[in-house]
Design brief:
Layout lengths: L2 H26 L38 E3 L1 E3 L5 H19 L13 E3 L21 E5 L10 E10 L5 E9 L4 E2 L9 E2 H12 L28 H11 L29 E9 L9 E3 L6 E3 L1
Parallel strand pairs: 1-3, 2-4, 4-6, 7-8
Antiparallel strand pairs: 5-6, 5-9, 10-11
Length: 301
């Protein structure tokens, strides 16, 4: 082989290596979004980015409405717990809504409020023809026995054809002794960190394998602090929801209701439910379980 040919091959290899490094660097700063492609459904094939773990097929889900409300279900909390936990939930959502977007310096076009107050129903449901509430509820008995190390889960209901989020509910495993103090104990699970993660799912952000570039980790260890967003999380909420320009109406779709519906599946929506979940000492993983219905499909994970 001539010297010229060897030099050309070395130059080509150098450019290829540089391209791979740049591509890896670009992916290293990529956030993941929840999409309408269910990677856990054996009948579907969804492409997954090997570095980030992002599902790259399907429609990315998001709220079309930029003014959202949440309601705390206080039925499983002691009276003296309600206000402190409400403050923690509020701070978890504000971690996403009050960041400065890197391009504009403004906050995202997104507001969350507790102005409707508490609810009398902790059911995870979306009512297509009745009032709704985006519920934060604490389960004294965790109903998902197959995932005993689960800290919390978020169920997001969206329209399959468009990805528009209609409702989101967060369940917290009250069997876990969460830390609620300012300081995070070395062996404790921090409630605000877990709720900040779940708030990301509430907004349509999915898990990422990139540690520690995001609060949407696939793994959470005791003593870790994820109360504040990382750069990838800031990019996610700013890219998805833009810059604040909207005058807010915080009423849920079909109006607010503090009570459970008699028939939550009634109506004509074709929707899907997709929960993100947090697991202690293991993985924040996306597990999808299907429950068949005529007009409503539920994706759980």
């Amino acid at each position: 082989m001539s010297t010229r040919r060897r030099d050309l091959r070395r130059l080509a290899l150098a450019f290829t290596t540089l391209w791979l490094v740049l591509a890896a660097s670009e992916n290293a700063h990529a956030y993941c979004r929840t999409t309408t492609c269910n990677a856990k459904d054996p009948t579907k094939t969804c492409s997954i980015d090997p570095l980030t773990g992002c599902v790259t097929d399907g429609i990315a889900v998001a709220w079309r409405r930029r003014c959202l409300s949440f309601s705390l279900d206080s039925s499983n909390l002691r009276l003296e717990q309600v206000d402190p936990i409400l403050q923690i939930v509020t701070r978890a959502f504000k971690a996403w809504t009050t960041v400065q977007c890197p391009q504009s310096g403004d906050v995202p076009e997104l507001s969350l409020s507790h102005e409707w107050g508490p609810v009398l129903c902790g059911h995870i449901e979306y009512n297509s023809a009745q009032g709704n509430a985006n519920v934060i509820t604490f389960r004294d008995v965790w109903p998902y026995v197959s995932l005993g190390d689960e800290l919390a889960r978020t169920t997001v209901t969206y329209i399959v054809d468009t990805g528009e989020i209609m409702d989101a509910d967060i369940e917290v495993n009250n069997e876990v002794k969460f830390a609620t103090s300012e300081e995070i104990p070395a062996l404790g699970f921090d409630l605000q960190s877990v709720l900040t993660h779940e708030a990301g799912h509430f907004l349509g952000v999915a898990h990422s394998n990139l540690r520690p570039e995001t609060v949407m980790l696939t793994r959470y260890e005791a003593g870790e602090n994820y109360r504040s967003l990382r750069a990838d999380d800031v990019n996610a909420v700013c890219d998805i929801y833009g810059v604040q320009t909207t005058t807010c109406d915080f009423a849920p779709l079909n109006g607010f209701s503090a009570e459970c519906a008699f028939d939550p599946g009634s109506g004509g929506w074709c929707a899907a439910k997709h929960p993100g979940l947090a697991r202690r000492g293991a993985h924040w993983v996306l597990v999808l379980v299907f429950a068949a219905a005529v007009l409503l499909r539920r994706m759980k994970g």
